[in-house]
Write a structure and sequence with these properties.
One of its GO terms (cellular component) is cytosol. Pfam families: GCV_H. InterPro entries: 2-oxoA_DH_lipoyl-BS (IPR003016), Biotin_lipoyl (IPR000089), GCV_H (IPR002930), GCV_H/Fam206 (IPR033753), GCV_H_sub (IPR017453), Single_hybrid_motif (IPR011053). The protein has one domain (about 10-125): OB fold (Dihydrolipoamide Acetyltransferase, E2P) (Beta Barrel), CATH 2.40.50. About 15% of the residues lie in helices and about 35% in strands. A hairpin with a 3-residue loop joins strand 6 (about 55-65) and strand 7 (about 65-70). With about 130 residues, the protein is of the alpha+beta class. The strands form 2 sheets. It has a 6-stranded antiparallel sheet. A 3-stranded antiparallel sheet has the order 4-6-7. The chain has helices at about 30-35, 85, 90-95, 120, and strands spanning about 10, 15-20, 25-30, 40-45, 50, 55-65, 65-70, 75-80, 105. The protein has 4 helices and 9 strands; from the N terminus they run E-E-E-H-E-E-E-E-E-H-H-E-H.
């Protein structure tokens, strides 16, 4: 599995990552998750304006190996959706921390970020 765990991100035990960008948080799935899933063929994205609840399902990612739920790392409102994934879901495989991002969320409770794992705490979950 990948040892490529960016230090500047926060993580969930379910293998989502969160990038804090001022007042919003960009969310995606980790390199470890996409490696475990295999070739991503479909992503069910939430709608703009959708409300996410911390720890709850907000979409589905489907690969040649499995179907997996996406879980919200924080509660908030979806302010951007990566529409490129609709036509090219393999961006999650080729660039999970860049072009393969899934949604951008405006948090309703910024303190929830403090519950997320840093890279050092997330690393053991990839072994």
């Amino acid at each position: 599995m990948s040892d490529n765990i960016p230090q500047d991100l926060k993580y969930t035990k379910e293998h989502e990552w969160a990038r804090i960008t001022g007042r919003t948080i960009v969310v995606g799935v980790t390199a470890h998750a996409q490696e475990s899933l295999g070739d991503v063929v479909y992503v069910e994205l939430p709608k703009l304006g959708a409300t996410l609840t911390e720890g709850k399902n907000f979409g589905v990612i489907e690969s040649t190996k499995a179907v997996s739920d996406l879980f919200a790392p924080i509660s908030g409102t979806v302010v951007k959706v990566n529409d490129e994934l609709t036509g090219n879901p393999s961006l999650i495989n080729s660039d999970p921390y860049g072009q393969g991002w899934i949604v951008e969320v405006e948090p309703s409770d910024a303190s929830q970020v403090g519950k997320l794992l840093d890279a050092a705490a997330y690393a053991p979950l990839t072994k």
